[in-house]
Amino acid sequence: MNESIITLIEIAIKLAKYNEHNDVISFLKIQSDEFKTILSEEEIQKLMIYANCLNGIERENIENTIWLAEY
Q1: 3-state DSSP of 12-29
Q2: What is the separation of C-alpha 65 from the centre of its chain, rounded to a whole number of angstroms?
């Protein structure tokens, strides 16, 4: 495995441990540059959209729409 891939995997594991069972939008609050290296600008924008949803139903509809558009 490429060393940079191993590094990204290690960072992703740290991020998951840091977040525990919190909502993924909490990633927006992380200030560490290390964690920001694994989140693309597109992923950050999606998290911002989720964070601005009015309720769980709206968020679920938006998440489903984004998933469908990506696949």
Answers
A1: HHHHHHHHCCCCHHHHHH
A2: 16
pLDDT tens-digit map of 48-61: 999 999 999 999 99
What DSSP state is assigned to residue 38?
A: T
Angstrom CA distances, 31 to 27, 36, 60, 64, 65, stand at 9, 8, 27, 28, 29
d(CA 9, CA 56): 30
- Grouping H, G, I as helix, E, B as strand and the rest as coil, residue 63 is helix
Regarding pTM above 0.70, the answer is: no
Rounded CA separation 19/32 (Å): 13
> Does the CA dihedral 19-22-24-25 come out positive or negative?
negative
